[in-house]
Design goal:
Elements (H helix, E strand, L loop, with lengths): L5 H4 L12 H18 L3 H6 L3 H5 L5 H4 L7 H22 L1 H23 L11 H14 L4 E3 L6 E3 H18 L7 H17 L7 H18 L22 H15 L6 H19 L1
Antiparallel strand pairs: 1-2
Helix pairs in contact: 2-6, 6-7, 6-8, 7-8, 7-10, 8-9, 8-10, 9-10, 11-12, 12-13
Length: 289
């Protein structure tokens, strides 16, 4: 009988119980810490927040605990909303354990980048789950790059990969300008970078391959604009300088320029460099006539 099987006698029914959501537990823990901090008059922030001064005292646990302390209700709400909204499909894709590694790694890389820039400021305190949440956003963009979402302000539809790229650019600009708003933009940027490399480690492709190919084509176009080759006149039979050249010099030169645009000039062979030098000399001679 099926009821006689040992896994059916187990009250927990482990084989049939769905995996518990890490996101739900993270949200509960963040809310609990916030309530504890509110009731304790902000003492939790002092105990859990991260700074170069606390790390110099070897309080290394703060590298993790800072992610669960928030400075206000709005800070907590938007972080938890982002964690739930972007994290739910990512957790379903990766599974709870890998999702938790992604979240914590993003927060750690964010903390490291922020500490690197603020090491001399011993009393600057880093708190909040933003580094981990930005990492979850990057993971969502790499898992579902073409997913259409609607921004809240302004209500503009765009692909998920585009939205994350826009956020990354904003974070870089604000970190470069040294924003005084109290927002740890470098921690956000570190979260994006940490998640990107972790997802690459798991085998997910970059959602921005189109940017690399577009840049290669543009670089090839710039090279062509600076070196335009015309069909040369037939060389003299006794000219040793052109001995061994391909019959269609213009086509060969175009191929070499394409190779430079895709792989860089360091990829050329000695023979290809010779062909390019001869084509450049021919162009110079024609221009001097």
């Amino acid at each position: 009988m099926l009821s006689d099987r040992h896994y059916m006698r187990d009250p927990s029914r482990r084989l049939f119980r769905p995996r518990a959501s890490v996101i739900k537990r993270l949200i509960i823990l963040n809310v609990a810490v916030f309530l504890f901090s509110y009731l304790g008059g902000g003492k939790a922030i002092e105990l859990l927040g991260l700074s170069s001064g606390t790390l110099a005292r070897f309080e290394v646990w703060r590298l993790a605990t800072y992610m669960f302390a928030h400075g206000g209700l709005g800070h907590l709400f938007f972080n938890m909303w982002g964690l739930y909204f972007f994290g739910t499909p990512v957790e379903q894709r990766l599974g709870p354990q890998r999702f938790l590694r992604l979240y914590l790694l993003s927060g750690l890389v964010g903390a490291g980048l922020w500490l690197w820039a603020n090491w001399s400021h011993k009393h600057f305190l880093l708190i909040g789950a933003s580094g981990g949440v930005f990492g979850v956003m990057m993971a969502a963009a790499m898992s579902f790059p073409n997913m259409q979402i609607l921004l809240l302000f302004p209500p503009i539809p765009m692909k998920l990969r585009t939205m994350v790229l826009v956020y990354a650019i904003i974070e870089v600009l604000q970190a470069w300008q040294g924003s005084k708003s109290g927002i740890a933009h470098l921690a956000h940027l570190g979260g994006l970078l940490g998640a990107f490399f972790y997802m690459k480690h798991l085998g997910f492709p970059s959602p921005y391959q189109w940017f690399r190919s577009t840049w290669a084509r543009q670089r090839s176009a710039w090279t062509r604009r600076n070196l335009r080759v015309v069909t040369p006149e037939p060389p003299e039979p006794d000219d040793p300088y052109v001995t061994g050249l391909p019959r269609d010099l213009e086509a060969e030169t175009d191929r070499i320029l394409d190779k430079i645009g895709t792989h860089g000039i360091q990829s050329l062979t000695s023979e290809e460099r010779r062909v390019l030098e001869i084509a450049r000399e021919r162009l110079r001679q024609r221009g001097g006539r």
